[in-house]
Automatic annotation (TrEMBL):
<feature type="transmembrane region" description="Helical">
    <location>
        <begin position="145"/>
        <end position="167"/>
    </location>
</feature>
<keyword id="KW-1133">Transmembrane helix</keyword>
<comment type="similarity">
    <text>Belongs to the binding-protein-dependent transport system permease family. CysTW subfamily.</text>
</comment>
<dbReference type="GO" id="GO:0005886">
    <property type="term" value="C:plasma membrane"/>
</dbReference>
<dbReference type="Pfam" id="PF00528">
    <property type="entry name" value="BPD_transp_1"/>
</dbReference>
<dbReference type="InterPro" id="IPR051322">
    <property type="entry name" value="AA_ABC_Transporter_Permease"/>
</dbReference>
<dbReference type="InterPro" id="IPR035906">
    <property type="entry name" value="MetI-like_sf"/>
</dbReference>
<dbReference type="GO" id="GO:0048473">
    <property type="term" value="P:D-methionine transmembrane transport"/>
</dbReference>
<feature type="transmembrane region" description="Helical">
    <location>
        <begin position="187"/>
        <end position="210"/>
    </location>
</feature>
<dbReference type="InterPro" id="IPR000515">
    <property type="entry name" value="MetI-like"/>
</dbReference>
<keyword id="KW-1003">Cell membrane</keyword>
<keyword id="KW-0812">Transmembrane</keyword>
<keyword id="KW-0472">Membrane</keyword>
<keyword id="KW-0813">Transport</keyword>
<protein>
    <submittedName>
        <fullName>ABC transporter permease</fullName>
    </submittedName>
</protein>
<feature type="transmembrane region" description="Helical">
    <location>
        <begin position="50"/>
        <end position="74"/>
    </location>
</feature>
<feature type="domain" description="ABC transmembrane type-1">
    <location>
        <begin position="12"/>
        <end position="206"/>
    </location>
</feature>
Length: 216
């Protein structure tokens, strides 16, 4: 049985859905985590070695677990949250746990690149710590943040394809079901090409947006 164009299109939109929803929740988790990793470190606005050590350790633990293992390990939690361990909705849960800490580290790196003179100048003008974070630190790092989020999105696209190995839906599931199990080379080629185009399109869009913001 050959795969139909409708099934390919459906798998494509499932992947888009998985990546979009996962990215949204991962940024909601990763952004504050990344900010906390910066402002609680030694010599920063809210220096707190205990909180920094705890956050850094938790982030490192999740980042050290391969996605395919994480996906299986949190099956009980996935079932609790979405009522199933297979399908597109179920794949979102491990994708968020996988990409949230990763995004936190990327955001941390971007914010640390901001010249310390910017913070010193803001403090000299009487800005509060929260004003420094949201009016100086983040705007100054915005171009870099966009590039980092772009990298995270590309990582999510790859992880969503791996989710297909355990029934996660999307292009990965299509490639496993038809391309691998039924030895359909054409399906494998089509899914790989689509994934390449998605990654290339995302990277190009991120580069253009970051460049535009940098100029402004």
């Amino acid at each position: 049985m050959r795969v139909s164009n409708e099934e390919i299109i459906e798998a494509f939109w499932e992947t888009i859905s998985m990546v979009s929803i996962s990215l949204l929740f991962a940024v909601i988790i990763g952004l504050p985590l990344g900010i906390l990793l910066v402002v609680t470190r030694k010599g920063h606005l809210f220096e707190n070695r205990f909180i920094f050590s705890i956050l850094s350790t938790v982030v490192n633990i999740f980042r050290s677990i391969p996605f395919i293992i994480l996906m299986v390990a949190i099956v009980p939690l996935t079932r609790l949250l979405v009522g199933s361990s297979i399908g597109t909705a179920a794949a979102v849960v491990p994708l968020v746990f996988y990409s949230g800490p990763y995004i936190a580290r990327l955001i941390e790196n971007s914010l640390l690149e901001v010249d310390s003179g910017v913070i010193e100048a803001a403090e000299a003008m009487g800005a509060t710590p929260f004003q420094i974070i949201f009016r100086f630190l983040i705007p100054e790092a915005l171009s870099s943040l966009i590039l980092e989020i772009t990298i995270a999105t590309i990582g999510l696209i790859g992880a969503s394809a791996m989710a297909g190995a355990v029934g996660g839906g999307g292009l990965g599931d299509l490639a496993i079901t038809y391309g691998y199990q039924r030895f359909d080379t054409q399906v494998m080629v089509i899914t790989v090409v689509i994934l390449i185009l998605m990654v290339q399109g995302m990277q190009t869009f991120g580069n253009i947006l970051a460049k535009k913001i940098r100029r402004n």
